[in-house]
Write a sequence for this structure.
């Protein structure tokens, strides 16, 4: 087991604690392997009735993958061809798939920063999941800020948010709060941090046949604290749906430029800092993902990430953010009008024949 993953079983609940606070619980390959191993072990353990995943720190649930690791191994020769990099994404996406179809209740306490890879281990699953947010929740899929795209199944869960919210979140990388997450169907219940000790007491004592029902009942009195009235996404829903519809990124930018509203001006300012190429790639990804299964989304993203590192945009984005810290990435191409459809479509070319795809066994 990774030193950064703590596990225990109490009251028939398997607890997974992310414990890498100095790195905001950024996922390493060892951490991914440890989470996968314990979930596989508990999957067939009749004494474990549910899984509860959380953080040892109030600052972050999980800030994503370890992007400095991406930079270091991604610069191996030939570029983006490191075996460790290949293993990281193949095993991370396989973990996302495992969680999505996990046969037992899977509860995630999303307190603090929840981004990128953290969203992958929070959003996966439908029938058995429960996602708890707090007033500290800061949620995002910010990959376009580092020249990447919303992976870890981001194409699947963003494409299924109401209206064009997922398109907006994927192309801007904007951070949202608890009320936004609930409105966007990226969370299920709100519990204030002051009540988290009582929540943990409940988990230790309850004999409920379904722990999710008990948690929902516990959270019900606090719902008004994160109601739709507190959601900026809800307040801007009409603008989001209007500007972020369609299949062409340049038309989205043109639409925003023709709007004199504060929302449009702020959104343009944000998008000017993002990778033009990866914004266009993200839009294409989300449009394709809307009609795809979880497994096919993850397989597509696995090919996309190989193309992304080969191109080098993500390496430049990470360099600017965490290596040189100049916050001045030299995107290639530098503007959206230089992004050709041929360049975008190149990110979706098959890397492996179906029988050799590293995620070929997902179903």
């Amino acid at each position: 087991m990774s030193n950064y993953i703590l596990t225990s079983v109490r009251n028939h609940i398997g607890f997974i604690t992310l414990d890498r606070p100095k790195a905001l619980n950024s996922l390493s390959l060892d951490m991914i392997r440890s989470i996968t191993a314990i979930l596989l072990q508990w999957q067939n353990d009749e004494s474990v009735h549910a899984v509860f995943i959380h953080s040892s720190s109030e600052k972050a649930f999980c800030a994503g993958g370890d992007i400095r690791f991406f930079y270091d191994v991604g610069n191996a020769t030939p570029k983006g061809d490191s075996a460790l990099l290949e293993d990281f994404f193949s095993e991370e996406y396989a973990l996302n798939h495992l969680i999505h179809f996990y046969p037992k209740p899977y509860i995630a306490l999303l307190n603090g920063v929840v981004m990128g890879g953290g969203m992958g281990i929070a959003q996966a699953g439908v029938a058995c999941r429960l996602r708890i947010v707090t007033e500290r929740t800061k949620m995002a899929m910010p990959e376009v800020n580092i020249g990447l795209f919303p992976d870890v199944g981001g194409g699947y869960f963003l494409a299924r948010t109401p209206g064009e919210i997922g398109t907006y979140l994927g192309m801007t990388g904007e951070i949202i709060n608890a009320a936004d997450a609930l409105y966007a169907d990226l969370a299920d219940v709100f519990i204030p941090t002051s009540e988290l000790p009582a929540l943990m007491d409940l988990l230790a004592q309850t004999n409920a046949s379904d722990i999710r029902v008990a948690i929902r009942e516990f959270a019900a009195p606090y719902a008004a604290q994160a109601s739709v009235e507190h959601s900026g996404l809800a307040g801007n829903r009409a603008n989001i749906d209007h500007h972020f519809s369609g299949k062409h990124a340049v038309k989205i930018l043109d639409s925003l430029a023709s709007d004199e509203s504060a929302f449009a001006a702020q959104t343009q300012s944000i998008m000017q800092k993002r990778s033009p190429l990866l914004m266009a790639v993200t839009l294409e990804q989300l449009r394709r993902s809307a009609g795809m299964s979880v497994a096919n989304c993850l397989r597509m993203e696995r090919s996309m990430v190989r193309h992304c590192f080969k191109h080098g945009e993500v390496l430049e984005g990470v360099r600017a953010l965490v290596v040189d810290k100049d916050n001045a990435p030299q995107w290639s191409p530098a503007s959206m009008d230089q992004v050709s459809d041929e360049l975008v479509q190149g990110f979706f070319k098959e890397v492996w024949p179906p029988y050799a795809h590293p995620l070929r066994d997902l179903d």
Observations:
- The chain has one domain: 5-356.
